[in-house]
Amino acid sequence: MELDRMSALEIGERLGKREISAEEVVNYFWERTQKLEPELKSFLTTCPEEATGVARQVDELRRRGERLPPLAGIPVAVKDNLSTRGIHTTCGSRFLENYIPPYDAAVIQKLKENYLPVLGKTNMDEFGMGSSTENSAFYPTTNPWDFSKVPGGSSGGSAAAVAARQVPLALGTDTGGSVRQPAAFCGVFGLRPTYGRVSRYGLIAFASSLDQVGPITGTPEDGEALFDLIAGYDERDATSLDAPGDIAEPELDEQRVKEIKVGVIREQEGNGFAPEVVESVKEMASFWESYGAAVEEVSLPLTEYALAAYYLINAAEASSNLGRYDGIQYGYRTGYAADLQELVFKNREEGFGQEVKRRIVLGTYALSSGYYDDYCLKALKTRTLILRDMQRVLQTYDFLLGPTTPTPPFGLGEKIEDPLQMYLSDVCTITDPLVGNAAISVPGGFTPEGMPLGLQMSAAPFRESFLFKLARFWQQRKKYLTCASLQCGEKG
Amino acid sequence: MEELYSLVDHLSNLSRIKLSSEEKDLIAGQLKDILGAAQKVQELDTGGVPPTTHVFYQWRTREDVPAESLPVEEVLRNVPERESSLVRVPRIKSLDE
């Protein structure tokens, strides 16, 4: 059985009918992971024994005739900034190279409650700071569609693992695009949920007012199933939303599409945007139009200010969050230090990579006396203006459409020396986190060279279900291949 | 540039990170570009606009209910240097100061 050609839900169905055992499924994906890992390096840690243990439990429960959740027994990969009890959680950093959390993140608990075997922890830019996974302290991950390209980041390991079907499901985290951008670069689906819908308990903090956990999958149906499983109120996260639950969305049919108003973001084309990217957005705009949706151009004039505000806010929050890493109770410890102060200075010097130091320094600057008003406070006020602008626009439009990234996947090493260029590659994905929107990246076709392009649909808070229905309507008709051709056949 | 270098020096102290002089040079150069781009926000008129630190204000506090804690041994497993259940660190102030 070619399990890598099936969606997670399809595998789940076969598991339910006992046509295949969960142990066989885990073995299949574990073997595939081992085979592809030397080229891809999607994982930082693998835990096949723990995964097999969960699979055996699933098989035993099924033998006893128990009804299990739809994704029970389906292997999942999780980003290495999600705390896993007893399993290394490095955040892609030397600082946490030997750190083994004594507790599980809320989302990991949910995976366990639903009997999903965690096959491993995926590679990432250190503490989530980066857009290519090249800032991992250990090694870069490659793009399964072309090993000379980056998989995006910071959840590059999760996206690559799904695109190569080392696993059918993965969790990433998104601060300024870290789920959606790698999903786009790897040609798969990635959702950034509404801020507060998924508990951040046990997610190692980067920028707390922006961080969210989201699913990365090969189909929108799998994405929705995984999202439903991880979402929900958690009293251990002070920003968790005690929401009324999903805004119930009926399936999107051709009749309902006619009632939808789509806003195509004007600022996301032109300078810095690759022609094939602009073309793919036009194609999607015509697609919705051809089904009778009202498609109009919409302006978000604050887009370029949003990028500046985003980088100031994220650096400020990061410098504060990363203040906890002194290497005393856990984490990196240097060889010799004459006194306590030197110990902390040296631990941080040796334990953190370049990008992390850069953001801490920038954030410290933005927060420091004399500069706070001009930088941090100004950025937070800009955020208010962006929020107002977005609320105004979303009164008219059901969702906004644009590219997920301004360019197709870039080459390994291409932008790593120039942090500002790397930051600019996040321009399409930073607005939604600033305003709390839900946003999804869906496959939008391929470049002539065969690299995937991603398209983004953003909607008002709590409209995840709507976004998944849109993604499904699109993918059912486009049928883009979401499994990298290098490993598994022809492109769609 | 010299001004930026001493700024980075100051910031490295504030953020408790030792930086080599090469690193300070590198970060000073990059900071110049990054701050240049970040200056963009100065162009906006934000008079009378309140800051947004969080998008949704649903702050809640919960009852302070005693619950089971993690076992001490498990929590201390990650301590780099320890003596029984204590964390070992160098002296607070070195003798030669």
Strand content of chain A: 5-15%
Helical amount of chain B: 25-40%
Poorly predicted regions of chain A: 487-492
| Helical stretch tally of chain A | 17
Please report the first level of CATH classification, the CATH class of the domain at 1-42 in chain B. Answer: Mainly Alpha
Question: Looking at the structure, what is the overall shape of chain B?
Answer: flat
Shape of chain A: globular
The CATH topology of the domain at 3-255 and 439-488 in chain A? Amidase signature (AS) enzymes
The strand order across the widest sheet of chain A is 1-3-2-4-6-5-10-11-9-7-8
Structural class of the helices, strands and pairings of chain A? alpha/beta
Descriptive overview:
- With 492 residues, chain A is α/β, with parallel strands linked by helices.
- Chain A has a domain at 3-255 and 439-488: Amidase signature (AS) domain (Amidase signature (AS) enzymes, Alpha-Beta Complex), CATH 3.90.1300.
- Chain A contains 17 helices and eleven strands.
- An eleven-stranded mixed sheet of chain A has the order 1-3-2-4-6-5-10-11-9-7-8, sandwiched between helices.
- In chain A, helix 4 links the parallel strand 2 and strand 3 (118-122).
- In chain A, helix 2 packs antiparallel against helix 3 (48-63), helix 7 packs antiparallel against helix 16 and helix 10 (303-321) crosses helix 12.
- The two termini of chain A are 21 Å apart.
- Chain B is flat and about 55 Å long.
- With 97 residues, chain B is mainly alpha-helical.
- The longest helix of chain B has 18 residues, at 21-38.
- In chain B, helix 1 packs across helix 2 (21-38).
- Chain B has a domain at 1-42: Histone, subunit A (Orthogonal Bundle), CATH 1.10.20.
- In chain B, strands 1-2 form a two-stranded antiparallel sheet.
- The chains are: A alpha/beta (492), B mainly alpha (97).
- Chains A and B meet through helix 10, helix 11, helix 12, helix 13 and helix 14 of A and helix 1 and helix 2 of B.
